[in-house]
Design a protein that fits this description.
The complex is a heterodimer of chains A (about 625) and B (about 725). Chain A is an alpha/beta fold and about 625 residues long. Chain A has 19 helices and twelve strands. The chains are: A alpha/beta (about 625), B alpha/beta (about 725).
C-alpha cells in the first residue's frame, strides 16, 4: 500500500552529456527525479541500429525471456497487493461495523486477516524475489553485452587502416569505448526491465481498476491527458533551457580552458581585465540558462504529485458516491486509490523511455558505425616469404595522397641497395614521414609500386612485412608498465637476458641500473618519470631487440641533454650497422654521412644523391644547406 | 565545505524563505493523509456526519437523551441548542427553518447554535453515550417508550448497565455508533442524508485539493528559489575562482596544475550547484518531513510508533549494508574505467608502433584484461544494486502489512478507526522516505564536499607574485636594460635551487642567448623577467629598477614575450595580433606579420586577418601558430623581447628569413633568446651557457668554443667541425 511504486523507480543518470566522462555511475541521477529526459539525440537509422543491437543480445535470448517472465510476474504480484489488502481493510471495516451495531460475537475476523496477511507477505516476498532475480540476470546480460562491444571495438581499432585515425581524434574513439557503450549498457540494465514493468503495471493496474469499477476507472483516466499535456510542456521547456545551459557551460569551460592554458600569454600581455570581462559575460548567460533549466526540471515533481492528488480526490468523491449507492465497498475504494497512485508513475516513465531509447539508439549507432568502418585490405593469398630478405628497396612511380584528390607524393622513384643509409631531408610538411608510412604499408599507395628485394610489398603478409622493419620515432611511444616490458615489446618472446643485451647495445643499460628498481621500474602514464633522451634510448633498445632487416629512424629535433645525446648517436650507430636504414634527418652530420640523400619538397623527391653531388648541383638542397649558415650570420 | 558558506550570504533571505516554504510544504504533505483519512472515515464510513452532536434534533428525542445525562450536562447541552417552535417564532423565521427541517411543521426542534471545535468536542463527549443508550433501546423495540415515564430505579439500572457496557468503549467507537443514530434522526427531520454525505466528500475533497495546490505552489516556489540560489552561488563561485586564478602566478599554476584548475572552476563548481539543489530541496526538507511525520504519529498515540522505528531501522540497515559493500566498489569502478581508458589511449597513440611490432594480439589481450576487470566489478555493483529496490519494496510492503495487522487489533478494540490506520500507513511511508532521502543524499554529499574543498583550496591559495604595497615606477632615461644580480630561484617546496648565482646584463640593441641542455634552467631564468615567478634570491633590475617594486602591469608593458609553445586564443588572426595592443593600426599588424613571415599564409586565407582561430589555435599548423605568436609580440613594440625557444616549429629557411627581418626591425630592443639549436644563436652578442642552473660560460661563440666544455659538447653534437668553424 505504499504510494511509491518503487520497483521501477530509476536512478538513471539522464543528464549525461555526450562526450563527458563516464563518471555518472548508477548512483548519479538528478535530485528528486528532476532529470532531463535525454538530450534529444536521434539515431539516423533507428531500425537498423536496433536490429544490430538485437544481434548482440541473441546469445542471451533465454536469459532475456526469463527476465521478461520474471518482470511480468513481479509486477503482477505487486499489482495484486493493493486489491488483496483492500479486502483485508474491508473485512476490518465490516468487523468494526458489526461490532458497533452490537451483533453478538461480532468483531474483526482475525483468522481471515491473518490468512490474507500471510498470503500478501508471500506475494510480496515472491515479487521481491522475482524482481531481484530479474535484476540479477539483466545485469549479467547488460555487462556481458558491453564487454563484447568494447572487445569488438578494441579489436576493430587494430584492423582499421591508419587513414581512419587521420580524421578522428583519440577522444572520439575513446568516447565510443566508454560513453557510448556505457549508455547502451545502462539502458539494457535499467530501461529494459523498466519498460517491461511499466507496461505490465499499466495494463495490470488498468485491469484491476476496471474490475473494481469502470466508472471510477474512466474518471481516473481523465487525468491522463492533463498530465500528459503538462509533462510535455515542462519537458519541452526544460530541455530547451538544458540545451542552452550545456551550450553556455561549454562556452564558459572553453574560455576557462583557454585562459588557464594560455595564462602566460594573458599575463605577459596584461590581458587579465579582458579575460575577466569576457568571463563575466559568459558566466552571466550561463547563470540565466542554468537556473531556468534547473527550475523547470524541478517543476516536474510537484506537478506530477498534484495531478496524483487530483486523481485521488476525484476517485474519493466518485467512490463515496458509489459507496452510498452500495455499488462498491469501502475496501475497494482504498485499493482503487492505491492503483491510481501506481498508475501515474509508469506513465511518466513510459514517456521518458522513448527518449532514452532514442539516445541509446544514437549511442549504439555510433558504436556500430565504428565497428563497420572499412578495414585494411586483406592480405593476398600465397604471400611472399620474408625470411631471407636482404633489404633492397625500390620506389617506382609512387603516387600517394591521404585524400585521393590531394596527392602529396608525386611520382617518387628511388633505388636503395641493401645496407645503405638513406637520409630523407626537406622542410616540414614535405612528406618525409609519409614515405616511411608507405614503406611499412600503414597506407597503401594510389599507384606505382614499392618493392622489397624485387617483390611488391602488397604481396607480403602485412604482419610479416612490418616485422622486416624496425622503427625508432621521434615521438617515443612507451606505455604504462616496467622498463623491461617496454623494451621487450620489440620481441615479446625475448628472455630477460636478451632484453638486457639489447639495452646494453643501446647504451641504456647504465642508466637503467641507476633507476629505482632498475629494469623493474614502472613508467608512469605519460612516461614522465624518465627523461626524453632516456626514452629514446629505450626505443632504440626495443628496435635492437626486434632485430629488423630495415630500419627507420626519425632524428630528434629537440635536443636532449648533451651527454645523453652522445649516447643516442652511438646507439643509433650500433643499430644501423649492416642494416638498410632510412633516416629522417635533421642533423647535418647524419646527412653528410648518408649513402643517399632524398631531398623532399612538397611531396616530391626533388633531388637525390650524395652530399657533395647535391651541393655541386646547386639546387634546392644547396639552398637548404646554405640557409643554415646564412641564418647563423643574422643572429 | 564550511568555507564556502560565506558565499551563500547574499542568499540568506532566499534560503530562509525556502526553509519557510519547505515547512509549509511539509505541513501540507503531512495534513493530506488526514484528509484522505477523513474522506474515508467520515465521508464514506460515517455518511458524512462528523460526530455525535446533531446539527438539529427533535425536541422529543432530545428530551429522551437528556434523560440519561447529569443535571450539569443537561444545562450545558441546552445552552448550545436553540429551541425552534412554530408557535413561538416569527413567520419569516419559521419559513426559513422549515425549509431546512421539514419536520418542524409537526414538532419543535432543537438547533445547534455553536460551531467552535472545542465546544462541539465537549458536547460530543456528553452526548455520545446517552445517544448510544437511546439507539440501543430503539433497536430493542423500546423506542416508543418515553424515558420520562420509566420509574426512576429502572432508569438508574439502565444507566448502570449502559455505563458498564460502554465503559471499555473508546470515544471514537461511541461516536461512530452514535453517528448512525444522528444520521437516522436527520432522515426523520427530513434532511437529505445522501446529500450530506456527498457534500462532505466534496467539501473535504476541495479542501484537500487546496492543500495539495498550496503544497505544489510552495514546491514550485522552492524549486524556483532553489534553482536561483544554486545557480547564483555557482555563478559567484565561478566568478571568484576565475578572478583568483587569473591573478595566480606560474607557481600557483604549477602547484595546482592547469588541468586541475580547469576542473576546479568547471566540474567542481557544477558539482556544488547540483549539491545546492539537493541540499535546498532534499536535505532541508527530509528532516522537516521526517520530524513532522514522527510528531503526527506520536500525537495520534495509537501505540504503533514502534513500527515506525522498526521500519526506519530496517531501511537504514539495508542502505548501510548495501552501500558499505558497494561504495568501495564504486571507487574501484572509476579506477578501472581510467585503466580501460589508459589502455585504449595507449593503443590509439601507439598505433604505429603496435603495427610495426605486430603486437596487436598482445594489446588486445591487455585490453581484454582491463575490460574484464571492469565488467566484473560493474556486474558485482549492478547486482548488489538490483537487490536494493526489491528489498526496499519488501520492507515498505512488510511495514504496511504490519501496520494493518496491528491496526486491525486496535480497530477491533476500538482504539483506532480504519481511516486513521490508513493515515498511519501514509505517515509511516513519509517517514521512511524522508530517511531514505537522507541516506541517499549522505552518500552523494561526500563527492560534493570534495569539490567544495578543492574550490576552497583555490580561493584560499596564497598568491606568490604580488604587487608591492608602495609602487615604484620605471625611470624614463633607460630603455631595455635587464640586469640579473646574483639571482637564484627555487621552486616552492623544492630542496635545491634550480638557478643560482645568475648575474649578467642584457643591453638594448643586443641579442643575449641562453643555451644548455633540457633542465638546465633556461626557461626558468627568462620566466623571472616578466615575473611569472619571483626570484628567491638576488635581484633583477629592468632599466635600473628592481622589478619587484613596480606593478606587474607596468613591467609587462615593456616586454614582448614569445613562449615555447605558441598559444593563440579563439577569435580571429587580427584579435590575436592585437591582443597586446587593443588600438593597433592595420598597418602595424601588417608589418608585424611581414616580419614574422606570417603574411603569406594570412593572405592565402579568404578572410585574411579576419580568418577564424579556433580554440587553442587548432585550425592552424604549429609553424603558423608560432609565427602569429611572434607577430603578436612584435605588434606590441616592446623594449625587451623574450623568445623562449620560439623558432622550434619553423624550418631552417623560414627561421633564417624571420631572423633577418627581425634583426632589421628591432635595432633598439633588447633581445633575449632561449635556443636549442646552436646555429640559431651562433652570432648572438652574448651567449650564456647554463648547466644545472649555473652559468658555466658567457661570451661569444668563438670564445665559448675555446673555453667552455659544455658549449663545445652541445655544438659538436649538432654540427660538424667544419660547419662550426
Amino acid at each position: 500500500m505504499s504510494d511509491t511504486n518503487g520497483n521501477n523507480q530509476s536512478n538513471r543518470n539522464l543528464n549525461r552529456v555526450p562526450g563527458s566522462r563516464a563518471g555518472g555511475r548508477p548512483m548519479g541521477g538528478g535530485p528528486m527525479g528532476g532529470g532531463h529526459m535525454g538530450m534529444g539525440e536521434k539515431a539516423k537509422d533507428f531500425k537498423g541500429t536496433m536490429k544490430k543491437l538485437m544481434g548482440y543480445l541473441q546469445p542471451f535470448l533465454a536469459a532475456i525471456s526469463s527476465v521478461i517472465i520474471l518482470a511480468v510476474g513481479s509486477s503482477i504480484f505487486s499489482i495484486a497487493g493493493p486489491k488483496i489488502l483492500g479486502k483485508a481493510t474491508t473485512k476490518i471495516f465490516e468487523g468494526l461495523v458489526s461490532k458497533v451495531s452490537g451483533a453478538p460475537g461480532a468483531g474483526v475476523d482475525f483468522t481471515y486477516i491473518e490468512n490474507i496477511s500471510l498470503l500478501l507477505l508471500g506475494l510480496y516476498v515472491v515479487s521481491a524475489l522475482f524482481s531481484f532475480i530479474q535484476g540479477y540476470i539483466i545485469s549479467g546480460v547488460a555487462q556481458k553485452v558491453s564487454f563484447n562491444l568494447r572487445k569488438d571495438i578494441s579489436e576493430k581499432i587494430n584492423r582499421l587502416p591508419l587513414k581512419y585515425f587521420d580524421t578522428k581524434t583519440h577522444g572520439e574513439v575513446l568516447s565510443r569505448v566508454t560513453n557510448d557503450v556505457d549508455t547502451v549498457s545502462q539502458t539494457l540494465n535499467q530501461s529494459m526491465s523498466q519498460i517491461i514493468t511499466s507496461v505490465v503495471t499499466i495494463i495490470g493496474v488498468l485491469v484491476m481498476m476496471f474490475s473494481i469499477s469502470w466508472i471510477m476507472t474512466l474518471a481516473a483516466l481523465l487525468i491522463l491527458p492533463i498530465s500528459m499535456v503538462l509533462t510535455a510542456f515542462v519537458i519541452k521547456n526544460s530541455q530547451k533551457y538544458f540545451k542552452q545551459q550545456q551550450a553556455f557551460l561549454g562556452q564558459v569551460n572553453g574560455h576557462v580552458e583557454e585562459i588557464f592554458g594560455g595564462h602566460l600569454i594573458m599575463k605577459a600581455f596584461n590581458g587579465e581585465k579582458k579575460a575577466v570581462e569576457e568571463f563575466d559575460g559568459l558566466n552571466d548567460k550561463l547563470y540565466h540558462s542554468a537556473w531556468k533549466s534547473q527550475f523547470l526540471s524541478g517543476m516536474m515533481m510537484p506537478i506530477m504529485v498534484f495531478i496524483g492528488n487530483l486523481g485521488f480526490v476525484m476517485v474519493s468523491i466518485l467512490g463515496g458516491w458509489l459507496a452510498i449507492k452500495k455499488t462498491i465497498e469501502v475496501g475497494d475504494i482504498l485499493s482503487f486509490i492505491q492503483y491510481v497512485r501506481q498508475f501515474t508513475q509508469p506513465i511518466a516513465q513510459v514517456a521518458q523511455i522513448s527518449n532514452i531509447i532514442q539516445s541509446t539508439a544514437a549511442a549504439a549507432e555510433r558504436v556500430f558505425e565504428f565497428l563497420e568502418e572499412e578495414e585494411e585490405v586483406a592480405d593476398r593469398d600465397n604471400p611472399v616469404n620474408t625470411q631471407n630478405i636482404k633489404g633492397e628497396v625500390l620506389f617506382k612511380d609512387v603516387h600517394f595522397g591521404y585524400h585521393p584528390d590531394k596527392i602529396v607524393i608525386n611520382d617518387l622513384n628511388a633505388i636503395v641497395k641493401p645496407g645503405q643509409r638513406i637520409a630523407i631531408v626537406g622542410p616540414t610538411g614535405a612528406g618525409k614521414t609519409t614515405i616511411v608510412k608507405l614503406l611499412m604499408r600503414f597506407y597503401d599507395i594510389n599507384s606505382g609500386g614499392i618493392f622489397i628485394d624485387g617483390n611488391d610489398i602488397r604481396r607480403f603478409k602485412r604482419n610479416e612485412l612490418r616485422s622486416v622493419f624496425g622503427m625508432v620515432l621521434q615521438d617515443t611511444w612507451l606505455f604504462h608498465g616496467t622498463i623491461m616490458e617496454n623494451i621487450r615489446y620489440g620481441r615479446l618472446g625475448a628472455s630477460d637476458e636478451e632484453v638486457k643485451n639489447a639495452a646494453k647495445a643501446a647504451y641504456a643499460h647504465p642508466f637503467i641500473k641507476t633507476l629505482p628498481h632498475g629494469y623493474g621500474m614502472e613508467l608512469n602514464e605519460e612516461a614522465t618519470n624518465i627523461s626524453q633522451g632516456q626514452k629514446q634510448l629505450l626505443t632504440i633498445a626495443r628496435a635492437i631487440l626486434a632485430d629488423p632487416k630495415i630500419l627507420i629512424l626519425d632524428e630528434a629535433t629537440s635536443s636532449v641533454d648533451t651527454r645523453t645525446e652522445v649516447l643516442i648517436q652511438k646507439a643509433m650507430e650500433n643499430l644501423m650497422r649492416g642494416r638498410t636504414s632510412f633516416i629522417i634527418a635533421h642533423r647535418l652530420s647524419t646527412i653528410r654521412d648518408a649513402d643517399l640523400i632524398l631531398v623532399m619538397k612538397e611531396g616530391d623527391i626533388v633531388e637525390q644523391g650524395k652530399h657533395e653531388e647535391l651541393l655541386a648541383a646547386n639546387g634546392f638542397y644547396a639552398s637548404l644547406y646554405r640557409s643554415q649558415f646564412e641564418m647563423s650570420e643574422v643572429s | 565545505m564550511l568555507k564556502l558558506i560565506k558565499y551563500l550570504k547574499p542568499f540568506t533571505l532566499t534560503v530562509l524563505a525556502i526553509v519557510m516554504l519547505l515547512f509549509i510544504q511539509a505541513i501540507c504533505d503531512l495534513s493530506l493523509p488526514d484528509y484522505t483519512s477523513n474522506i474515508v472515515n467520515v465521508g464514506i464510513q460515517q455518511g458524512g456526519i462528523e460526530n455525535a452532536v446533531p446539527q438539529a434534533i427533535r425536541k422529543s428525542e432530545m428530551d429522551k437523551i437528556r434523560f440519561f445525562m447529569s443535571q450539569a450536562d443537561q444545562t450545558k447541552v441546552l445552552e448550545h441548542y436553540t429551541l425552534l417552535d412554530r408557535d413561538s417564532m416569527s413567520n419569516n423565521m419559521y419559513e426559513e427553518n422549515v425549509k431546512d427541517y421539514p419536520k418542524l411543521s409537526e414538532e419543535p426542534i432543537y438547533k445547534l447554535n455553536v460551531s467552535e471545535k472545542s465546544k462541539i468536542s465537549e458536547l460530543n463527549t456528553i452526548m455520545g453515550k446517552p445517544i448510544l443508550i437511546i439507539s440501543e433501546m430503539e433497536k430493542n423495540g423500546m423506542g416508543s417508550i418515553d424515558p420520562a415515564k420509566i420509574p426512576a430505579p429502572q432508569i438508574e439500572a439502565v444507566k448502570k448497565i449502559a455505563n458498564d457496557k460502554f465503559a471499555q468503549m473508546p470515544e471514537s467507537m461511541i461516536t461512530q455508533a452514535a453517528v448512525s443514530y444522528v444520521r437516522k434522526e436527520y432522515g426523520i427531520l427530513g434532511l437529505n442524508t445522501d446529500k450530506i454525505q456527498t457534500n462532505y466528500i466534496l467539501y473535504s475533497g476541495a479542501v484537500m485539493l487546496l492543500i495539495a495546490l498550496l503544497s505544489m505552489a510552495s514546491t514550485v516556489v522552492v524549486s524556483f528559489l532553489g534553482a536561483r540560489v544554486a545557480a547564483g552561488l555557482s555563478k559567484k563561485l565561478r566568478e571568484n575562482v576565475f578572478r583568483k586564478v587569473v591573478s595566480f602566478s606560474s607557481s600557483e599554476f604549477d602547484k595546482f596544475s592547469t588541468a586541475s584548475l580547469i576542473t576546479r572552476s568547471t566540474n567542481d563548481i557544477q558539482q556544488i550547484q547540483m549539491m545546492m539543489v539537493m541540499l535546498l530541496r532534499i536535505v532541508f526538507y527530509a528532516p522537516i518531513l521526517g520530524t513532522g511525520g514522527v510528531i503526527k504519529v506520536l500525537s495520534s498515540d495509537y501505540s504503533m510508533g514502534w513500527i515506525i522505528a522498526v521500519a526506519v531501522a530496517a531501511i537504514l540497515a539495508l542502505v548501510i549494508v548495501l552501500f558499505s559493500v558497494a561504495i568501495p566498489k564504486f571507487k574501484m569502478i572509476q579506477k578501472l574505467v581510467d585503466r580501460l581508458n589508459l589502455v585504449t589511449r595507449e593503443i590509439l597513440s601507439g598505433i604505429l608502433v603496435i603495427r610495426a611490432f605486430n603486437t596487436q594480439k598482445h594489446e588486445e589481450k591487455k585490453f581484454e584484461a582491463a575490460n574484464w576487470d571492469l565488467t566484473k566489478t560493474n556486474l558485482f555493483v549492478s547486482r548488489i544494486m538490483s537487490l536494493m529496490m526489491p528489498m526496499m519494496m519488501l520492507i515498505m510492503n512488510g511495514i504496511t502489512l504490519l501496520i494493518v495487522w496491528v491496526g486491525a487489533h486496535q480497530v477491533d478494540q476500538g482504539a483506532m478507526q480504519v481511516g486513521n490506520m490508513m493515515a498511519f500507513i501514509q505517515y509511516a511511508m513519509q517517514i521512511i522516505i524522508a530517511f531514505l532521502m537522507i541516506s541517499m543524499v549522505s552518500i552523494m554529499l561526500p563527492r560534493a564536499t570534495v569539490s567544495a574543498e578543492r574550490i576552497g583550496e583555490v580561493l584560499d591559495a596564497e598568491i606568490s607574485v604580488k604587487d608591492a604595497e608602495r609602487l615604484n615606477h620605471f625611470g624614463l632615461n633607460q630603455k631595455g636594460y635587464v640586469e640579473f644580480k646574483n639571482v637564484s630561484f627555487r621552486y616552492p617546496g623544492a630542496e635545491e635551487d634550480v638557478l643560482s648565482g645568475i648575474s649578467f646584463t642584457a643591453k638594448p640593441g643586443q641579442t643575449t642567448a641562453f643555451i644548455g641542455s633540457t633542465g638546465s634552467g633556461k626557461t626558468t631564468l627568462i620566466n623571472l623577467i616578466p615575473r611569472f615567478y619571483d626570484a628567491t634570491g638576488g635581484e633583477i633590475l629592468v632599466d635600473g629598477t628592481d622589478i619587484k617594486t613596480v606593478s606587474q602591469q607596468e613591467l609587462r608593458e615593456k616586454i614582448g614575450y614569445v613562449p615555447q609553445k605558441a598559444i593563440l586564443f579563439s577569435g580571429t588572426i587580427k584579435s590575436n595580433l592585437k591582443y597586446g595592443v587593443e588600438d593597433a593600426a592595420e598597418s602595424e599588424l601588417n608589418k608585424a606579420a611581414v616580419i614574422a613571415q606570417a603574411i603569406d599564409f594570412i593572405r592565402s586565407k579568404d578572410e585574411g586577418f579576419g580568418a577564424n582561430i579556433s580554440q587553442g589555435g587548432a585550425n592552424v599548423s604549429g609553424g603558423q601558430k608560432q609565427r602569429l605568436s611572434i607577430a603578436r609580440a612584435l605588434v606590441k613594440k616592446p623594449e625587451i623581447f623574450i623568445f623562449d625557444d620560439s623558432f622550434s616549429a619553423l624550418d631552417f629557411k623560414t627561421e633564417a628569413a624571420l631572423r633577418k627581418a627581425l634583426k632589421a626591425e628591432t635595432t633598439d630592443s633588447t633581445i633575449l633568446v632561449v635556443a636549442q639549436r646552436i646555429s640559431t644563436i651562433m652570432n648572438a652578442d652574448q651567449i650564456i651557457v647554463l648547466d644545472e642552473g649555473k652559468i658555466v660560460g658567457k661570451g661569444k661563440h668563438q670564445e665559448l668554443m675555446e673555453n667552455c666544455e659544455v658549449y663545445q659538447q652541445i655544438a659538436l653534437s649538432q654540427l660538424s667541425k667544419e660547419e662550426l668553424a
